[in-house]
Design goal:
It is built from twelve helices and 13 strands. 39% of the residues lie in helices and 16% in strands. The strands form three sheets. The protein has a seven-stranded mixed sheet, sandwiched between helices. Strands 9-10-13-12 form a four-stranded antiparallel sheet, with helices on one face. Strands 1-11 form a two-stranded parallel sheet. It has two domains: 122 residues, Aspartate Aminotransferase, domain 1; 249 residues, Type I PLP-dependent aspartate aminotransferase-like (Major domain) (Aspartate Aminotransferase, domain 2, 3-Layer(aba) Sandwich), CATH 3.40.640. The structure holds pyridoxal-5'-phosphate. Pyridoxal-5'-phosphate binds next to helix 3.
Length: 380
């Protein structure tokens, strides 16, 4: 199989990171923060190290990392823990359902109102368009850092400056960008970031979280055991425990830790360079095919290697079926959990075909895709 669906989840994974973490877990996988014996303390130290590494990786070494199951969990935790009845939230029409659905449910429940900023013909939200949506009761801005459909990076620094001027926190959804593009939370004045471990960070599913400014007062939406302040029947107010109820995913955290170390290696930098070249070749190759419309095309700076397109005369679903069945090429088709973006691009419910590259893709993978599409269009 040629795997070109890395924006859904990266595959394959860096096996040595997974093996090392599993070995360490099997050797001393006690419950972190729950016991005073050596193994529990050692596990706790490993978790603390990964919390720090994650915060440092996104440019905010003094922020706190609160682990969650994934980005969806983290985004819900922050949004629901921050807004109060009558608050207003700003987000964008580029968002994933993990932001859109919580916003719509909170509005349906009569708790919040919200407005969504449009994106321009280049797939980018213009800071001034977002700025125009501020109201006196705006409590939070939520921004998808890298579109999971178009691959476009959003102007987080400019939007961060606008939010900081108004004293409104900016929550960055870095599900697609973490591991794929530089992130500098402090420089960009971002108050919180949601991440998921299983995409470009190259970790396993089931681990994600928030990296947030500890001055941000987020109410926990779940209460339970934390291993600290156990004498109190009320949940701990201290971060990170405040937003973590119950036993955390130690194996996931240990694996994520190894994956973060790997991202700092020369091999990872080399793979990222190769990926950028493949991305450029993919965009160029698609543009050369008659009957292919690439949405907001581009590569290089300001992009992650995610490309969406439609084939004239072909429903996207059929493209995916033929690529899989006849060519053993795995791509994603449909709405990619971003229905408003497709509405605005005029795709209707069928959506698009999405190709997303990863560090293990090679030039022959991209050429095989281009050749398959060319054959399907009767151009070879
Ligand atoms: C932009 C964006 N946000 C959020 C998510 C949700 O990630 P997870 O399913 O890991 O919670 C995704 C996953 O596709 C995404 O692409």
């Amino acid at each position: 199989m040629i795997y070109l669906d890395n924006a859904a989840t990266s595959f394959p994974k860096p096996a040595s990171c997974f093996r090392e973490a599993l070995d360490a877990y099997l050797a001393a996988g006690a419950s972190p923060g729950r016991g005073g014996y050596d193994a529990a303390v050692a596990a706790e130290h490993q978790v603390i190290a990964v919390r720090r590494a994650m915060a440092a990786y996104v440019g905010a070494p003094d922020y706190v990392t609160c682990f969650a199951a994934n980005a969806t969990d983290a985004l819900n935790t922050l949004l629901q823990g921050l807004v109060r009845p009558g608050d207003h939230v700003i987000s964008t029409r580029l968002e994933h359902n993990s932001v859109l659905r919580p916003l719509h449910h909170l509005r349906e429940a009569g708790i919040i109102s919200f407005d969504l900023a449009p994106f321009n013909a280049y797939g980018v939200v213009e800071p001034r368009a977002l700025e125009a949506l501020f109201q006196p009761n705006t409590r939070l801005v939520m921004l998808n850092h890298a579109s999971n459909v178009l691959g476009t990076l959003q102007p987080a620094a400019e939007i961060g400056a606008i939010c900081a001027e108004r004293g409104v926190p900016l929550l960055l959804d870095a599900s697609q960008s973490a591991g794929a593009a530089p992130i500098d939370l402090l420089a960009w004045k971002v108050s919180a970031l949601a991440f998921t471990g299983h995409k470009s960070l190259m970790g396993p599913p089931g681990i994600g979280g928030l990296v947030l400014d500890p001055a941000l007062e987020v109410r926990p939406s779940r209460w339970g055991g934390t291993g600290v302040d156990s004498e109190s029947v009320l949940h701990s107010r201290e971060y990170p425990e405040r937003l973590e109820a119950g036993t955390i995913n130690l194996l996931g955290i240990m694996t994520l830790g190894r994956c973060l170390e790997r991202l700092a290696t020369p091999e990872a930098a080399e793979a990222a360079g190769r990926e950028a070249m493949l991305h450029a070749r993919l965009v160029e190759g698609l543009a050369a095919l008659e009957g292919v419309t690439v949405h907001c095309p581009g590569s290089g700076a300001g992009r992650i290697p995610v490309v969406s397109f439609n084939l004239e005369g072909w429903p996207p679903h059929d493209v995916g079926m033929v690529l899989d069945g006849d060519y053993e090429i795995a791509v994603r088709t449909g709405l990619h959990c971003a229905p408003l973006l497709h509405q605005d691009l005029g795709h209707g419910a069928a959506g698009s075909v999405r190709v997303s590259l990863g560090p293990f893709n090679t030039a022959p993978d991209v050429e095989a895709l281009l050749a398959a599409l060319s054959e399907m269009l009767g151009q070879s």
